[in-house]
Amino acid sequence: MSKINAKELKNAIKLLNESGLIEKAKLTKIKVVGVKMETLLNTFGDAVDSIADAKLDSEIDPAIIAFYNESFGDGNTSETEETEETEETEETEGRKETEETEGRKETEETKETEETEETEETEEKKTPKEKKTPKEKKTPKEKKTPKEKKTPPNKPRSCYGHIASAKSGHLDELLCKGGTYQELMDEVEVKLHRIKGHITVLKKKGLTLLVKENEKEPLKTHVQIKEDNI
């Protein structure tokens, strides 16, 4: 099984999010931060399948197609090199930057207040006859509460967690019932390597594949997911 750097996955998702095809297929842009790499890869595959189902596959960037084929073609499902620790590190760094920015703002406000007070004291010493009314200290502005992000409506999922309307979701249901490679290819309108790649993804989830080989006619080999490991 070939390894694919997580940067390549994130780059492919960035291209897809900026391509405009997500909106045309009436999908939600893929979020990257805080998501497990395995989940991110499956979400990416579902999005590409949905775009293809919407007859927009001719508009997909070649780089996206190349990464998709490398990830799901011929059973070579990608493994990400970055772990959840990397994602947590990115979130921690983001929080640190925010805290440092807020700290700098507070320091600048404090300096301005001190300089104002020193200026007032100097002016009072120069003109002792005229007493100036001390300026009122500025009340620190209240921090705005961040707006809650609208959560997009959840789309129906297949028995193994893929979008039901996508080809991957359709394959889930057919593999649950069982059938030959030829039957799956005809029903979902995909090539054999796409089916084998999808099976590899399901195996990574801990599912077991039952196979009845047909050596004379390989496309008549019967496959079915055994569900006792779910």
Question: What report would you give on this structure?
Answer:
The chain has helices at 6-18, 21-24, 37-53, 62-72, 84-126, 167-177, 181-188, 192-204, and strands at residues 3-4, 79-80, 179-180, 208-212, 222-226. The protein has 230 residues and is mostly helical. It has a domain at 155-230: Arc Repressor Mutant, subunit A, CATH 1.10.10. The model is unreliable at 74-89 (pLDDT under 50).
Rg, alpha carbons: 29 Å
Instruction: Look at the structure and give the CATH class of the domain at 155-230.
Output: Mainly Alpha
How would you describe the shape? elongated
Secondary structure: number of strands: 5
Distance between the termini: 23 Å
> In terms of structural class, how would the helical and strand content be classed?
mainly alpha
Write the H/E string, N to C: EHHHHEHHEHHEE
Strand percentage, roughly?
5-15%
How would you characterize the largest beta sheet? 3 strands, antiparallel
Major sheet strand order: 3-5-4
Number of helices, counting only DSSP H or I runs of 4 residues or more: 8
How much helicity do the residues have? 40-55%
Looking at CATH, which topology of the domain at 155-230 would you report? Arc Repressor Mutant, subunit A
CATH architecture of the domain at 155-230: Orthogonal Bundle
Mean pLDDT figure: 78
Parts with pLDDT < 50 across at least 5 consecutive residues: 74-89
